[in-house]
Design brief:
This protein is α/β, with parallel strands linked by helices. It contains 11 helices and 4 strands. A 4-stranded parallel beta sheet has the order 3-2-1-4, with helices on both faces. Strand 2, helix 3 and strand 3 form a beta-alpha-beta unit.
Length: 255
């Protein structure tokens, strides 16, 4: 049995234990699929989005898509990484009054505030060795080192240039990934590729980013003065082209 059908079997059983769930949604392909799956099985679904900078037009646009597509308004909170950056002074001036939070803290707060008993993520084991180890620890019931979140329905779904469970699901369930909508092929974090992409494509959001992280302008200045950090030249900033490939199984789930 494929990982996709194993996920569906699990989802048929979980609503008996949890009536309401929170889906941690970065607006990437994985988390959009997790959100869509949960909406098909659970009585109530809430969407949680963590942002490095509040008030971005891009975030508002993506929240609007979720609202139109699934009928819910995402609950937007500050990313735990942004709190750490602001406290330590990464691309800004240090502010030791900023309270640290872990991703688990944010998940626990969301459960209480949204009155839900389960955190669902779109994390996949194949993304990196740390995620794989964390997911496996969680499956064994270990708390130390387990990947944050209670349930990862896409944990063992495939996604590569030759085989993908994600792309057929998106296509068959009429879900348009945001990279096709706004051209961003990566999450919005406080790294060079995000800053350069915002500067080149979304001036208002770039200006808003500088209000929170004023020293991020150095990334653009470095490119202007030295030609360092250009998206087309920096290997770590390049976004690999994804070629849709048919999976061996095509799954379409009716509402």
């Amino acid at each position: 049995m494929s990982a996709v059908f194993e996920t569906l079997d699990e989802l048929r059983q979980l609503p008996g234990l949890h009536q309401a769930v929170v889906v941690a949604c970065s607006f990437g392909k994985d988390s959009l699929i997790a959100l869509d799956l949960c909406c098909k099985f659970f009585q109530r679904v809430e969407c949680l989005h963590m942002t490095y900078v509040p008030g971005l037009e891009l975030t508002a646009k993506r929240c609007g898509y979720v609202r139109q597509r699934w009928g819910m308004t995402p609950h937007v909170v500050e990313h735990w990484g942004a709190l750490e950056h602001r406290r330590k002074g990464y691309r800004c001036f240090p502010d030791d009054t900023v309270k640290r939070k872990t991703i688990k803290d944010i998940y626990d707060e969301a459960k209480v505030e949204l009155n839900c008993s389960l955190i669902v993520t779109g994390t996949r084991a194949a993304e990196d060795i740390g995620r794989r180890a964390g997911i496996l620890r969680g499956m064994r019931g270990e708390t130390a080192g387990a990947w944050p979140g209670d349930y990862h329905p896409l944990a063992f779904w495939r996604h590569s240039k030759t085989q993908s469970d994600l792309l057929p699901y998106l296509r068959n369930n009429n879900i348009e990934p945001f990279e096709a909508i706004d051209g961003c092929k990566h999450g919005l974090s406080n790294d060079a590729k995000t800053i350069l992409w915002l500067h080149d494509n979304h001036k208002k959001d770039y200006a808003r980013w500088l209000e929170v992280f004023p020293l991020a302008s150095a990334v653009v200045a470095r490119r202007e003065y030295f030609g360092i950090g250009r998206l087309e030249d920096a290997k770590e900033c390049a976004s690999p082209t994804e070629t849709p490939s048919p999976a061996t199984e095509t799954v379409e789930i009716g509402t």
